[in-house]
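Standup notes
- HV: blocked on the assembly model, inputs below
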Amino acid sequence: MVVVVLGAPGTILRSVWYEEERLLRVAQQMPCREVQAGMLLSLMGQPQQYSYPSIFIYGHRASGKSHVMHVLLKELELPHATVSCVECVSVALLFEQVLLSFFGCDAASLLPRSPSLSDFVRIYRQQCSQSPAKQTRYIVMEKAELLRDTDANLLPALLRLQELVEDNVTIILLSEIVWDKFRPNTGCFEPLLLHFPDYSKGELQQILSQDRHPSYTAEFYSSYINILLGVFYSVCRDLRELRHLAALNFSKFCEPLAEGKVKETDTHKLWRNIEPHLKKAMQTVYLREVSSLQWEQMQQMEEKESGALRGLSAHTHVELPYYSKFLLIAAYLASYNPARTDKRFFLKHHGKIKKTNFLKKNEKTSNHLLGPKPFPLDRLLAIFYSVVDNRVAPTASIFSQISSLVTLQLLTQVSHDDQLDAPKYKCAVSMDFICAISRTVNFDIVKYLYDFL
Amino acid sequence: MATSEAECLCLCLQLTGTVCNLLSLIFQGCFVFKPSAKKKKKTLSLGEITFVLQDELNRKILDSLLDFTRKCSSTRQHSDWASQMRASEIPTAALVLGVNVPDHDMTFQSLSELLQQSVTPHVASVQAKECGGEGLLALVLERLMDTVVTVDDEEEEETEQTSTQLHKSVHCSLSTLCDWYNAKTMKSKTGTPGKKRSSPVRDDPQQPPVVIIFKDLEAFNPKVLQDFILICSRYVERLPLMFIFGIATSPSTIQHMLPHSVSSLLCIELFQSLSCTQHLATVIDKLILTPQFPFKLNGKVMQVLMSIFLYHDFSVRNFIKGVQLALLEHFHSQPLSVLCCKKKEALLNVMQLSHHDLESIRHLLSFRRYVEKQEPQEQLNLFRDDTHLKEVCQKLIKDLRKYHKNYYPVLRCLHTLTSSLPRYPLGKQVRELHLICLEKNVWENEDYQTAMKLLKMLAKDELIASLQRCVEILQPVKSKKMKKALVELEELLAKFKQLDSKFLLCRLTWGLSLFSNNSYCWWNREWKSTTLLEMNESRRAKKLSPFEVLRNEALEFIDGLVKSHLSPPESQTLNEVCYYSSSATVRRHLNATPRTSIQAALSSPYYYLQNESLKTEDGTVSNAAPDICIAYKLHLECGRLINLYDWLEAYATVVSAAEGNNPDSDNVRKVEEVKHARFIQAVSELEFLGFIKSTKQKTDHVARLTWGGC
């Protein structure tokens, strides 16, 4: 039986198999994750003992999953392979990385081109008979949710890899989503589940305070973090983002100090100075409207100058050729008007049609709430010819403009790619965008929209 | 120019001199290369000019991009607290280039060349259509490392043969790239010092950034891009990566494509390029509104090119190609274009004209108009005496050159004066004014009258400022008339200034006298009211102030300039030599109408086949026409759905009538197999052309895809 003794939170982690000193180092590197680390340690057991075949760890972004695993395996010098599933575009890469880190590149080169799972198992067993495991080997798979998109047999096989290769190996899956979403229809070996909860405010404060600026005292930095959390905690609990924001705004926080106006202990004055600044950061740099580099430059500039810098979403204006604008307008009309109303809008002598009785039931709801509908190419052209004010020859460039609108993602093609068989499109721009476009060509689009009749 | 076709054009169409050499060679049939001494003068071909222009225009944005890359690579090396603390972001430049996608290639070309020259040797540019699905990473590695990267589903025999070690070294993953990069930088560290000196601009030879250019961000699959960025961000500590996004629409597309979790890995900076209309304005300025090139476009051709630009593509490159096409057509179709070259050569070429060429000069519209104005004796001489005609031609050519030399400066002067007027009666851009002037006498234009009226209300400082600018425009011009105009204009300006000082002096003395009267302070109320009164009185009396007199004088002077120099080129004798006028050809080539031509071919096959038996009156098709024409004609008479059997019957009737059979005889009733087959072929051809398609709405029917008919 493994004996793991946990001290009071925040002190030390103890296990009889490892030296005190090493555990202390581990504990220092992962504040506020002692419970989870202790649990993991107890699951791992003695290095030479067989461990549980598969462990599934889940928790939100930046809750320390990878970090804890990394620190544990590294500091305790356990044999391990860490693989990110985003990077493994093919299973071959995954197999190769595992073999490479356990048996060296000779083993990895034994893999045939486009290897199958059985190839991997065969080579693993072959290698492991030559160098059997003295300690438990760990395979850590980050972003394991991507494993669901690979071959159906991969995930179940990995979960009981220990049996397959008859070696002391444990798979640790790290994911942001729960195990229930993983379970295949055919059933599989159930891994041990371990949850990493979100950091609380106090824990965040404790962790963030650790990376203090070398030229300021710990208390000062800690008070800064306190202010920062006060502003940002309600919108963002992502440790990485918070750390990023802390780094970006610290120089501004220290400004009055450097000018000699305030003392380090005068927290209230410092707060008064930084708070509006942080509020502004929340609207710009946090949303990545402004890049961190630009944010730093803005801090150096005077207040009035920095107003000139606009965020990414402020630039929505798109310049288009004249006919492209009309094509886009026609596409918008075709997407948001029911086809039966075209007669009413584009025919000269359409007669009176009452809105209520010629509508189907589902057309009574606003088309703008339902989103754009697909339309065939000839309807687009028919509307185009009736909205554009002069005669346009059906030249090749009109058609090429349609396809370039598709590549610009202002239109999307919904049917298959066969151009011969009446392609269908959807308009992918917003109401504001199309209003701005039609204003530049003096076209009153609202008059032509069925929803605004 | 990117395409080889365009290069060919550039090569054979060196505008200055060489064109005439080449073309006169073609006409005279001899091949004498004149090693011209003009080379000293640094003559530029059209292609070179446009390339230089493009470069200049992009210079600013490229420079700022280069600065950005340098800054990014240098901040990486800093080890201060803030940059250490910051989550590892990948520096990214979002380059907004506008919707004229065909123009982007050149920008990216020069960008990557510049980057390679001065910042880093590791530049890879990728396009969306090159990497569908998962090929992006492989492509990037391939571009950067210059090797073949093995992707698993790829069947390649040669990689099997190479040693396993090599095979591993090019496996498709970023860690391979890291190893490669480390090896590279290590090598350059220990590399020969001479090699380093060859590229001294590189500010940091140890850690040059790895730049990946995404040429068309919109076209990339968002999923692929997100994964790629995620992978890259894992390696950013080991590998100084940098992205450049080429964006055609607006920067907010980044936010549409990438979720916050991905875009938080990037440190995006925005770079906005010049708008394409500004770009075009510069090109027109340097290429068309200059007497430097003898080749000109007439109003209609300009109009066609402009409308293609504004209405269809916004592509400056296509505009330049249009000019090149016009150039080619002009020298190809107009024999007198031998005279369209530098002055000296033109004069020489005039002397070498054959009798045939001179006859064609005599047939020119503008020349006949010229002849009509001459004395009867002179008229006879011009028609009979070739040598006399040559002399006259030389004079006329000189006149034409002078006309051009004066035309453009005056055009610009008029533009500077009118471009700031409210509601722009003569257009915002020079090109609009140019188009007006090309069409007819600008001073007869109503807008010109309104512009003049508005100018007569201009305030003094504005007027002086624009006149000053006119002086600046006229200064570098060498022609005699312009020099004279410049002198007059400067005199006018001097008068304006004199007026200024006189007025001041007047005021001052008057003020002083008031002051010396000691009764009032010169700034007090009484004084003000008296001056106001005086001013009112003068207005009431309709007496023009000296400034107004001078203003009218100046405007009359400008008006005189316009009337003497801005007459349309059509009024000039021998304008056909320089002006290309066939707008229909240009339109046909650049703005093709495939469907109209197909319909024309189907409805009147004579137009293309030139077979006498196919000639018919309007709207009918002869029985002897090809099967598809008959089928097309018959299908026009149908509604949206066409019954195939009826169609076949009608077709068989028409065809058998063509064969001379009596439609009523028995054996024709049954449709022959051959006719049946021909009909089916015609129908499937129509389907392929997109006129009909099969439908499931009704059995034995096909649907029409076009509307209208007879």
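- HV (later): unblocked. Chain A touches chain B through 61 residues (CB under 8 Å). The first strand of chain A starts at residue 4 and ends at 6.
- Next: hand off to the docking folks.
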